[in-house]
Records
---
Amino acid sequence: MCYGVKARTEMSLRMARSRGDAATAERLRQLLEPPEVFDLHFANAFDHPRLVLFTDTAPREPGLFTWGLVPGWVKGDAQRVELWNRTLNARGETIFDKPAFRAAAKHRRAIVYVEGFYEHFHFGKKAYPHFIRLKDREAFALAALWEEWTDRESNMLWRTFSIVTTEANALMRRIHNKPGSEGPRMPLILAEGEEEQWLAPLHSTHGEAALKALIKPFPEEAMQAWSVKPLLGKEGKGNRAGASDEFDYPELALAGPLAHGG
DNA sequence: CCAGACGTTGTT
DNA sequence: GTCTGG
DNA sequence: CCAGACGTTGTT
DNA sequence: GTCTGG
């Protein structure tokens, strides 16, 4: 789930200014110089982009983290490579139980602002990429977990993260309809009022229960989706401006309406 | 007890 | 580090 | 989507 | 050829 996200430098800077202050935004701008963030970041076994995260330990100090969480108990670099393809996402239902995520779920939560994300709609044996966003918010927060891990051999520090997922709502079930796949998922989208709750220390709230209450599908009526050009391959639009531009596939008219207001 | 896993999703 | 499976 | 397996018995 | 794993 979450084939890719749109998280542009410009939008990250804007969120840094709104959450933090001018100095924080300036530090972030220097971190991102030259701007290296485009319209689409892939999340798959071959691609581990760095994105801007706001963490619980420094909610006003955004940092760059690599997608694919590396737990603290990882023994060496080979194990890191083996594991992090499989920790791009964390199932919200089990983050407090799984050895890979438990510590992060308790003490290292974060949010990442995106303008939307990408999924494939399957119709007539073909896959049609779609862009999904919120109708009335230019950028919104996805719930994440983060870790820091140091490779003892190279002394290299890895700051990594995983995007939390939850059950898909009706819109996401219609889009993310890969035949044979079971239990469709969507990223955990936080409403504006939920962002600080997700970042708050456990002891300051009603503990795990308060966090678990946030782990639920986002209301579908607040979301919209449209089809976009192929993201990969010869005609691929990935990691370039315009990846999220609407592109109409005539044959999809037969599939019926997919999205609200898309 | 020790060895081995530790995880999720999907189409270049 | 901690849990699971053999 | 592509790459690679595609099988069985059985324990130092 | 078809299924599985990545």
---
Amino acid sequence: MEKKSIISRIIESGLKNTKPRVNIIDLLEQSDNLMTAQDIYESLRNNGVSLNLSTVYRSLDKLTENNILNKVMLEDGKQALYEYNHDIHHHFLVCKSCNKVKPIYSCPLDKYEKELEKKTNFIITGHRVEFYGYCKECQRKLKNNKTLI
Amino acid sequence: MEKKSIISRIIESGLKNTKPRVNIIDLLEQSDNLMTAQDIYESLRNNGVSLNLSTVYRSLDKLTENNILNKVMLEDGKQALYEYNHDIHHHFLVCKSCNKVKPIYSCPLDKYEKELEKKTNFIITGHRVEFYGYCKECQRKLKNNKTLI
DNA sequence: CTCAATGCAAACCGTTTGCATGCTC
DNA sequence: GAGCATGCAAACGGTTTGCATTGAG
């Protein structure tokens, strides 16, 4: 994505256009993986961008509030992950060995959600789905090591 | 559940039968709601059981490891919740207003999971699903207050 | 008697916050 | 120039850990 469109996305949200915000969005938009605040901080520092961890957290909060980014909490609950919000509904496939997280762009829950609303009298506004298992690479590694039960 | 069967469940797992463990299992088995470590700690204290928060955490760890309890991390990621493990596959319906968590004992994902395994070459060992929304009571309250957007 | 479990206090670690300074609009 | 954003350091809060003591098997 061009810097210009990143900047206009920030401004349209009513936020101020600052270097840390542009850099964070740019990084996440280009990243294949979800990243933690720490990941982002280190990655930017390593690329010569000087900024503070608390700025990263504050930026992530603002950008998540404004739907430019998504915040994701996986099962372990240790630390939050962030991704650029492409506005495409999706879920995740998480490898329990290497911890890689792959997005899945199909969702089996639409009909089920409607049924559930009727059954429970809830208004359902969203859902979260994750699949846990072992990716192809780790299956191979673990088979060789015989550590996969 | 009777104390006796709680104790035998502990012993069968190879753990030692101690008061904190029996009390924690007993409490969670009878609770309608998921509880945090802090909840458990306070509830037991209020019932005259003297024990330490770190004992609660250590017990919860051991009991979760041994599948007597389940540990659940919701979207906010603030604190872990625990439930007695009835060995029935289920998911949760979470009210974003009152934070109540209701188990749902149906699951729409079995077929989908198989498809996904083929498509992605993952071995899938489990999944997690939560629905977020507003429960009947909170819908009413919020409608009156006009604070539900 | 041995080893696992507990109590207590201190550490941990991801995240948040208060305050002075800087920068965007 | 006004008000939001940042840097820095300190606080927070849930959870974990080291160590001496207790208690189950």
